[in-house]
Amino acid sequence: MVTPVAVDDVLRLARRLADLSDDADLDGLVRDVRERLAALLRDPGDPAALWRAAQRWSAAAALVTRRGERLGADTLRADDRWTGPAADAYLQGLRTQRAAFAEAAGAATAVASALRELAVALSVFWAALGVAVSALAVRLAAAISACAVPLAIPAASAAGVGALAEFLAEAGLLLGRLHDTAGRLLRHPPAARWPALADPALADGSMTDGDGSGWRLRH
């Protein structure tokens, strides 16, 4: 993870090298690195919060699964005792409701998996960026040390330019990978839809109105 202290240290080294070398290109790269790191630290994300959200979605999936399991054999017994269009509609409705519970549970599980994957990707991003910041600090410190010899200042400045440019390129690559992961996870969100119990026969399940849709005892 990149800490504000580590960022301050590497920016201090970069600024010191720019002052020693009096190089406009180096000065511009220092500004670019400062802006890039500041933008990342303003909105770093929270892998732990993503993981907690994933746990809540997993719990929701388990709850929905348990609710769906209640629509089992015991719930279907009405079909053993009654007959008629309304009874048939009731049986078919239960089947579609059980399927909807299963689909909803699957959707919640998919959301939980996506959140966990994003949490891991975000953690990997910050770990890799932290390594890159540490490596940049080492290279800048070496370039500053080389500036103790006046004739070596141009070479030290060039080394600093290379180090900063390579850091910006690597940070961009890491951020691009993170965006690709997030985009892939959000490209096809779950689309579970709950079926309505809209069969007219089920809505008209009386026994005495004589319209043929009533419930009748099996003999």
Descriptive notes:
- By secondary structure, this protein is mainly α.
- Strands 1-2 form a two-stranded antiparallel ribbon.
- Helix 3 runs antiparallel to helix 5 and helix 5 packs antiparallel against helix 6.
- Keywords: Membrane, Transmembrane, Transmembrane helix.
Topology:
Blueprint: H1 4-21, H2 24-42, H3 47-69, H4 78-81, E1 82-83, H5 85-146, H6 153-187, H7 200-203, E2 216-217
Antiparallel strand pairs: 1-2
Helix pairs in contact: 1-2, 1-5, 1-6, 2-6, 3-5, 5-6
Keywords: Membrane, Transmembrane, Transmembrane helix
Transmembrane segments: 118-137, 143-169
Q: What's the average pLDDT?
A: 83
Question: What is the topology, as strand order, of the major beta sheet?
Answer: 1-2
Main beta-sheet annotation: 2 strands, antiparallel
Series of H and E elements: HHHHEHHHE
Question: Quick one: overall form?
Answer: rod-shaped
What is the tally of helical segments?
7
Uncertain spans: none
Distance between the termini: 73 Å
Whole-number tally of structural domains: 1
Number of strands: 2
Query: Class by helix and strand content?
Result: mainly alpha
Q: Helix content range of the residues, please? A: over 70%
| Rg, Å, rounded | 32 Å
Q: What fraction of the residues are assigned to beta strands by DSSP? A: under 5%
